[in-house]
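Input record, target 12 of the design panel.
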């Protein structure tokens, strides 16, 4: 049973037990109506997270589809441009500096922007089949940027709601534990109320906060790919371990992430030569979120 499900089950059982013995004893800190509100609040916050996750995933799917189209059109356009200007030494040299090998969204957009700028400079009216016009290419690029912004907004909302829900669940768990301690003190084992409480409420050990997972070493292995090695003994109790990174001095937030594979993994960062990346590991479960050390590497 997951930690959140266990807390949800215990919260409902505690509310039911308090309702059953309300005529004999009421906990001074919570009325039955307040326990009802606690259960209702838990359900509402859980539902909000589920709904927002669906919205976020929908935005991501739409964005990813557009990014895939943009990448494919950049690849095609760059190939056709190199054929068209193959005998123009100056333009051939400029085209040789462009790339369409991005593996992450931000890099795909950057490569598309660079290609669009060269396209406009060389011949804005050039519209080979099936690439189409520069205007159509720029429209797709603008759509990707808009969809990225929409996706990131929904992602932030989902993360905020999830953190709020996790905190609410933790507080509910604390209330349930306190109620149980008080109720079992009032009703010893062997009394009808005491046996009912002990027999219907699962007092399994609550999930501890996750331990941070630290990065031991980061190595650039070419083409923006990084080999990340993790320190031994970290990440205990985490239900999710996520490697996050950002371009230092360019991106304010850790906008790139991938699931952690221990003890090491190779990650396509999408970084360009000369860029410095800052990396960290996010460890999370229902009890909280912690971060490991931050590591820097210049590609």
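The sequence produced for target 12 reads:
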């Amino acid at each position: 049973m997951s930690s959140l499900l266990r807390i949800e089950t215990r919260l409902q059982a505690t509310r039911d037990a308090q309702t059953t013995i309300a005529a004999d004893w009421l906990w001074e800190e919570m009325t039955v109506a307040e326990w009802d509100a606690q259960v209702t609040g838990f359900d509402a916050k859980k539902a909000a997270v589920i709904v927002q996750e669906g919205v976020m995933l929908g935005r991501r799917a739409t964005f990813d589809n557009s990014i895939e189209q943009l990448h494919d059109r950049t690849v095609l356009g760059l190939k056709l441009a190199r054929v068209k200007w193959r005998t123009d030494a100056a333009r051939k040299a400029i085209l040789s500096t462009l790339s369409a090998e991005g593996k992450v969204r931000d890099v795909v957009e950057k490569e598309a922007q660079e290609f669009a700028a060269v396209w406009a400079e060389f011949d804005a009216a050039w519209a080979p089949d099936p690439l189409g016009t520069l205007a159509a290419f720029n429209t797709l690029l603008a759509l990707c940027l808009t969809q990225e912004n929409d996706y990131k907004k929904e992602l932030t909302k989902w993360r905020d709601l999830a953190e709020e829900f996790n905190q609410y669940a933790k507080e509910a768990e604390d209330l349930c534990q306190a109620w149980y301690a008080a109720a079992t003190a009032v009703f010893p084992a062997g009394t009808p109320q005491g046996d009912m409480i002990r027999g219907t409420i699962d007092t399994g050990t609550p999930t501890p906060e996750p331990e941070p997972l630290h990065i031991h070493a980061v190595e650039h292995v070419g083409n923006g790919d990084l080999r990340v090695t993790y320190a031994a003994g970290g990440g205990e109790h985490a239900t999710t371990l996520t490697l996050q990174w950002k371009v230092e001095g360019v991106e304010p937030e850790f906008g790139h992430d991938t699931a952690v594979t221990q003890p090491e993994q190779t990650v396509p960062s999408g970084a360009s030569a000369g860029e410095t990346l800052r990396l960290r590991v996010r460890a999370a479960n229902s009890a909280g979120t912690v971060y490991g050390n931050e590591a820097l590497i210049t590609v």
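The CA atoms of residues 121 and 217 lie 43 Å apart.
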